[in-house]
Design brief:
heterodimer; A: mainly alpha; two-stranded antiparallel sheet; B: alpha/beta; 15 helices; 14 strands; elongated
Chain lengths: 75, 419
């Protein structure tokens, strides 16, 4: 029941890129720019946190019948 | 003089050469590889052909008793490995190899098949750059079609974990060598389409050309071509490309290389996020600076600094108008006044009596003039007016004797008669 529909890292990063590009295009009012700026900083922090705190890559194996199972490879 | 003894017969020479060939230890059992050409299968069951490579050619014969043991059907161009002895066929003087055993040269034939398939698929457009999809920069989920054991999958997983741990990996365990590997790879590529993958790695670790062969199979090439997911081929080998490499959207030389292409480095991404932050701050700072400057420019304008100047200008204009109005009014007044005074100073208004006198005098003058002109004045002085039948008589010619006339005198009239 944590945050519903939490945006993925990739979506947040793409969003962040888009906002910065839009701001750089200069075609934004000051009010909107301030709002976008705050949003961008928030997104940057989220991306940053997510990447820094990323757990081990989740590896699954696709079985013969198409279901997913955890995959552990002995090293 | 039997000099002729010096000269050898052809058969003697040929016999000698045959003896030389046959007595040579090396030529008794020769292992030879090459490509079949000029292939003829005689009705007797003997096979006649040549074996050649890029530079040389040797005639070959395989007798039916050996030919019967062949486990493949030799054709023109077949790459073969043969064992036999080299000897001379005296009838033609040709040396040739008498083949005891012949095997298909797997690698050689694979190479031919590889070249042919590569050319065909290239012509068909399967390798066209235009068809290649871009590999996503920040994948969420990556699929790997490879053997579930072995170095390849380990390398891929460890590389992705190290570089970009937020990426999910789905392993599609597949046969990657031997019979059935190609169709298993195809099946897994098709299956992978159902798992919302951003990128698909298809590959295996290094091996011999035979081991890697599934990746040169047409069905695998077509499956990769058809696959909607951006694919990276990762067949561990050094020199040559597999067909899968040509048709994949991206080619990696090893499974580790494929993982490096598939995911970004976490540190680079963090760095990029920092850069975006900097750009974000910079752009907002620039915007604020710019607007500040604009505001300064506006507030420092003269009119805002001295707002009374607007009023002053207007006041001046108003004054000018008022001045003009006054002037014009005064002019008008003066004109009217002058006219009035002219009227008031005229004789009519000033001395109306005088005007009467003048008129009276004039009347009297006219009267007296009239008097002088009046016939009565003349009559008074003793003249008379003669009238005949009411008409004034001006000449004697108008008169005759006995005419009755009327005379007007000063104090009355009298009738007379002409004598």
């Amino acid at each position: 029941m944590a945050e519903k529909k939490e945006k993925s890292f990739e979506e947040n990063l793409a969003n962040l890129e888009e906002i910065v590009k839009k701001l750089e295009s200069g075609d934004v009012s000051l009010d909107e720019a301030m709002e976008k700026f705050n949003e961008a900083m928030k997104l940057a922090k989220q991306c940053d946190d997510k990447l820094k705190n990323a757990e081990k890559a989740l590896t699954k194996i696709v079985t013969e019948n198409g279901s997913l199972e955890d995959f552990e490879i002995d090293s | 003089m039997n000099n002729n003894d010096k000269y050898l017969s052809v058969s003697a020479l040929t016999g000698y050469l045959k003896y030389k060939f046959d007595s040579d230890e090396h030529l008794k059992c020769v292992f030879l590889k090459g490509e079949i050409s000029n292939f003829k299968s005689h009705s007797s069951g003997h096979l006649y052909f040549s074996i050649k490579d890029e530079k040389s050619k040797i005639n070959a014969i395989m007798f039916s008793m050996n030919a019967k043991k062949l486990n493949f059907v030799p054709v023109e161009g077949s790459k073969v490995l043969v064992v036999g002895k080299v000897s001379v066929y005296e009838a033609t003087g040709n040396y040739q190899i008498y083949i005891d055993e012949m095997l298909e040269d797997g690698v050689g034939n694979l190479y031919i098949a590889y070249e042919k398939l590569k050319n065909d698929l290239q012509k068909e457009g399967l390798f066209d750059e235009a068809h290649k999809k871009a590999i996503p920069k920040y994948p969420k989920r990556i699929g790997v079609v490879t053997a579930s054991t072995g170095a390849a999958i380990k390398d891929i997983i460890s590389t992705i974990k190290r570089r970009y741990p937020i990426c999910e990996i789905l392993v599609f365990p597949s046969l990657v060598q031997g019979d059935g590997a190609a169709s298993d790879i195809v099946k897994n590529i098709e299956k992978a389409e159902n798992y919302e993958l951003d990128t698909l790695i298809v590959g295996r670790g290094g091996g011999s050309i035979e081991d890697l062969w599934p990746f040169n199979e047409e069905i695998v090439a077509r499956a990769i071509y058809k696959c909607g997911i951006p694919t990276i081929s990762a067949v561990g080998h050094e020199v040559d490309f597999t067909i899968a490499d040509f048709v994949a959207d991206h080619r990696a030389p090893t499974p580790t290389g494929a993982a490096e292409i598939a995911v970004p480095n976490k540190l680079d991404v963090l760095n990029y996020i920092d850069q975006l932050k900097i750009r974000n701050k910079k752009v907002i700072r620039n915007k604020i600076d710019f607007l500040n400057q604009k505001l300064n420019d506006i507030t420092s304008k003269y009119i805002l600094q001295k707002p009374m100047s607007i009023f002053e200008v207007k006041e001046q204009i108003f004054d000018n108008i008022l001045e003009k109005l006054k002037h014009n009014m005064l002019n008008l007044y003066n004109q009217k006044e002058k006219k009035y005074s002219n009227i008031m100073t005229s004789v009519v208004f000033k001395e109306p009596i005088k005007l009467l006198d003048i008129k009276t005098n004039k009347y009297l003058q006219i009267i007296s003039k009239l008097e002088t002109l009046s016939p009565f004045a003349t009559i008074k002085r003793g003249y008379a007016i003669v009238k005949k039948e009411g008409k004034v008589v001006k000449s004697i010619k108008d008169l005759k004797s006995k005419d009755k006339l009327l005379l007007n005198l000063n104090d009355g009239n009298v009738d007379v008669e002409v004598i």
